[in-house]
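User: Here's a structure from my thesis project, written as structure tokens. My advisor, Dr. K., wants to see whether a designed sequence matches the one we expressed. Can you design one independently, without my sequence as a hint?
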């Protein structure tokens, strides 16, 4: 299953790209509208991209009224990404999305800037969301936690049905001539190729710890990259930064993945699921259909 990474595709302006995906994931929506940060909000580095968008979004009311009805026209399952600053925000956002038939699952962005992420607080946010909806809940974690497997376990125990791994990691880029920070916020989230080994390690550790279904992401640019995420435990994968330079990536990567898997003797790429764990693959905690 191929998804887009939250915030990396506007399905309303590029429906032809969304049509190449199995699921469309929205940009993170917050309780109130947000303008986001001042420009400059994007910087390129030689190993990926930095962004400090600052969760610009229309807020949950306009999202429900104006955005969701238009996303319904895509005729794709929609996962809504939500983010807030306290447990009540997550409960409120999930309560509001619960009656929306278009929303198949909710991704909890518990790794956005300004939301602390010790295991306790992730558990608290997931538990608040769990109490507010019966929809599938995916917890999206930061790769920056010292012990991401403990955070994943806390999320699983609080009622997450799955995990989205990983979000960006803090980085900084300097202007070539002035040596001043390029982004208006100085630091931002690093995505793209630099995240690949970090994402592999996170998926490996979290799958081993929880057995939960995992959407793997972080620098996927080819079928081989996707296959490696599957091998360490991902059940699906998402494309983020690559969509900015190659909008046709979903189709290309889907066929590359099939060819890569076949060359290694797998009839179906997902037969390689968790193969990197050898005999130590955990028993599934629970599966989401
Ligand atoms: C421009 C941009 C905006 C993003 N916005 C969000 C967001 O709103 N919510 C979120 O959970 N992740 C957001 N992300 C993180 C991505 O969903 C993804 O976790 C990350 O970029 C790693 O995948 P990639 O290396 O394939 O891009 C954003 C990433 C980028 C590059």
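Assistant: Designed independently from the structure alone:
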């Amino acid at each position: 299953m191929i998804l887009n990474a939250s915030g990396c595709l506007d399905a309303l302006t590029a429906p032809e790209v969304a049509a190449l995906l199995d699921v469309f994931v929205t940009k993170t929506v917050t309780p109130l509208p947000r303008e986001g940060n001042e420009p400059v909000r994007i910087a390129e580095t030689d190993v990926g991209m930095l962004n400090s968008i600052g969760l610009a979004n229309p807020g949950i009311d306009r999202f429900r009224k104006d955005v969701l009805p238009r996303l319904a026209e895509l005729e794709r399952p929609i996962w809504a990404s939500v983010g807030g600053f306290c447990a009540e925000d997550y409960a409120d956002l999930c309560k509001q999305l619960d009656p929306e038939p278009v929303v198949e699952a909710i991704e909890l962005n518990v790794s956005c800037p300004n939301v602390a992420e010790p295991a306790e607080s992730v558990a608290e946010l997931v538990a608040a969301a769990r109490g507010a909806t019966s929809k599938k809940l995916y917890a999206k974690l930061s790769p920056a936690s010292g012990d991401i497997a403990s955070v994943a376990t806390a999320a699983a125990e609080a009622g997450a049905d799955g995990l989205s791994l990983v979000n960006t990691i803090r980085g900084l880029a300097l202007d070539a001539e002035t040596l001043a920070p390029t982004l208006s916020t100085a630091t931002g989230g690093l995505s793209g190729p630099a995240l690949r080994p970090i994402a592999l390690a996170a998926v490996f550790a979290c799958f081993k710890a929880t057995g939960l279904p995992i959407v793997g992401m972080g620098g996927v640019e080819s079928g081989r990259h996707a296959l490696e995420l599957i091998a360490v435990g991902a059940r699906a994968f998402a494309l983020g930064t690559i969509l900015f330079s190659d909008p046709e990536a979903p189709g290309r990567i889907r066929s590359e993945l099939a060819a890569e898997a076949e060359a290694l003797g797998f009839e179906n790429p997902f037969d390689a699921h968790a193969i990197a764990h050898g005999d130590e693959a955990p028993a599934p905690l629970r599966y989401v259909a």
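When you compare it with your expressed construct, this may help: The pocket of flavin mononucleotide is lined by residues 5-8, 27-28, 49, 51, 53, 55, 81, 109, 140, 167-168, 191-192, 195, 217-220, 239-241 (CB under 6 Å).
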